[in-house]
Amino acid sequence: MGDSADTFDNPVLFVDIDGVISLFGFPSDRCPAGSWLNVDGVVHLISATASEHLLRLARAFELVWCSGWEDKADEHLVHALHLPARPPFLTFSRAPSTAHWKLDSVIAHAGDRPAAWIDDAFDDDCRAWAAARPAPTLLVATDPAVGIAAGHVEALEAWARRLAPLRAPMPSSEDAE
Question: pTM (2 decimals)?
């Protein structure tokens, strides 16, 4: 997903899986396009467009799995999504906290880098963290029945371009065609 020199300069993008890549909550008579994936006996509908969207985003971001799947994301999704490299994954404390259960790990991994986070379940703690953070921060909410969509990708790409006016221009989606 780019060499390490490019990745280090890019903002980090925390990618949730359930509700972003693995869809749920859709009406049973209107199943979205995708493929079924069995992960340790739990069947997931993987969005038909998730691979394309993640490959586009990998040009502008360091992708990091931010999901309760933890290492299962690495085991199951890299091949299912045809990703050329394995994004790192966050691990989470099992200790109860008053903040969103992912937030401590997100904070630790983001450090002082610009960071975006795409998820279907932000809460007030996530929004407060993003608003108070000195580094540029973007939260992108998804509908779990739809997951990541072209509009999310375009907004994330535009945000990344605004962060680095001195960096070499990021290819636009038209250049990729």
Answer: 0.84
